[in-house]
Amino acid sequence: MPVKALIAIVTFLLLAGQAAAQAEFDTKARFAVLMDNESGTVIYQKQADDQLEPASMAKLMTLAVVFNEIRAGRVSLDDEFFVSEHAWRTGGASSGGSTMFAELNSQIRVEDLIRSVIIQSGNDAAIVLAEGIAGSEGTFAIMMNELAANIGLSGSHFTNPTGLPDPDMYSTARDLAELARYLIEEFPEYYHYFSEPEMEWNGINQANRNSLVEMGIGVDGLKTGHTEAAGYGSVTSTDQGDRRLIAVVHGLTSMRERTEEARKLLTWGARAFERFTPYAEGQIVAYADVYGGETPSVGLVGKGEIALYLPRGSRQCLTATVNYTSPLLPPINAGDKIAELRVYCNDQLVQSAPLYAAESVGQGDLVRRATDALKQLALGWL
């Protein structure tokens, strides 16, 4: 008889200790997220899951697709892509937007196009990349959304590689932070482009549009954005010693306000938090029930240690839940992804982390299977 899947939720006290007090900080930004890159902990959020117009910050998704194509060997940095009339008219100098000033019918190396997208926010460069890889912006947008789904960006939908206004294109502050984290973690060999101070093309020199790069506070990426409807926003990152932070602010009224609010958020995050490790590498977080296994449960562990960054001085309890599809069926192999740890502060989700089987569990003997079947019948799971 088939087993009916249920979501088992184990709730427990994580630790009585220091936890978040967001009232200690506020920002003028309409949308904001501050994330610890190592653990994925969101240590500040404001309308983090509300839809927003990503503007040129959508180019981070364009770059993610391009970097994946390079890694797969389908594109190289030395490939040259053709500048079509569409790219020239839609993203060139006459468009009035950010541009590389690419010449019509010229061919440009992929590496130079990447640098332009990052440093100059070149709309023409983004379109040239999209057409060179996928043949059209529309097909490239399909690739963007496929990769976004693989990354887990559930609140985003992309329709073009530039971020130019489209009512069907949207993202969230949380998704933009997760996208930045993906780029930092997956493609460190290309991250240096984000901190280049300027780029010259076609005799025109343009400074990096992320003005925080030159402020001497450790910011080395990633991308700014602006449209009349959405306001000013940025996705930035800073490496403070052994810790990297990612900040998203959006919906601001000027470039100056965008710079100041991003700086304030990053500075607060770097100074006001301390690292907290509730579970060391290999430490059992919880146990999940196994139906018909040689043992009745399996231990769950993180991938390495599970670390959080929490504000100093605010005393209260953290709680956590372990969510998994129950009952689990053998065989289970050590290292299988089994569950998800969700950590809450003030009833607000601050981090989720996958949990894996600590050991293998084979199928139990007939007595074990019969006993578990009776238990499942009593619980109404069969």
How do the helices and strands line up, and which of them pair or pack?
Elements: E1 6-18, E2 31-36, E3 42-46, H1 59-71, E4 80-82, H2 85-91, E5 107-109, H3 110-120, H4 123-134, H5 137-151, H6 173-186, E6 198-201, E7 204-207, E8 219-227, E9 231-240, E10 243-252, H7 255-272, E11 273-279, E12 286-289, E13 297-301, E14 306-311, E15 315-326, E16 337-345, E17 348-357, H8 366-379
Antiparallel strand pairs: 1-15, 2-3, 2-10, 4-5, 6-7, 8-9, 9-10, 11-14, 12-13, 13-17, 15-16, 16-17
Helix pairs in contact: 1-4, 1-5, 1-6, 2-4, 3-4, 4-5
Organism: Devosia salina
Signal peptide: 1-23
GO molecular function: carboxypeptidase activity
List the main descriptive attributes of the protein structure presented here:
382 residues, alpha+beta, Peptidoglycan synthesis regulatory factor (PBP3), Domain 2, Beta-lactamase, 2 domains, 5-stranded antiparallel sheet, 8 helices, 17 strands, 27% helix, globular
Q: Compute the gyration radius: what is it?
A: 24 Å
- CATH homologous superfamily assignment of the largest domain: DD-peptidase/beta-lactamase superfamily
Give the CATH class of the largest domain.
Alpha Beta
Question: What ranges have pLDDT less than 50 throughout 5 or more consecutive residues?
Answer: 1-6, 16-23, 372-382
H-E string = EEEHEHEHHHHEEEEEHEEEEEEEH
Catalytic activity: Preferential cleavage: (Ac)2-L-Lys-D-Ala-|-D-Ala. Also transpeptidation of peptidyl-alanyl moieties that are N-acyl substituents of D-alanine
Domain Peptidase S11 D-Ala-D-Ala carboxypeptidase A C-terminal: 273-363
Keywords: Carboxypeptidase, Cell shape, Cell wall biogenesis/degradation, Hydrolase, Peptidoglycan synthesis, Protease, Signal
Organism: Devosia salina
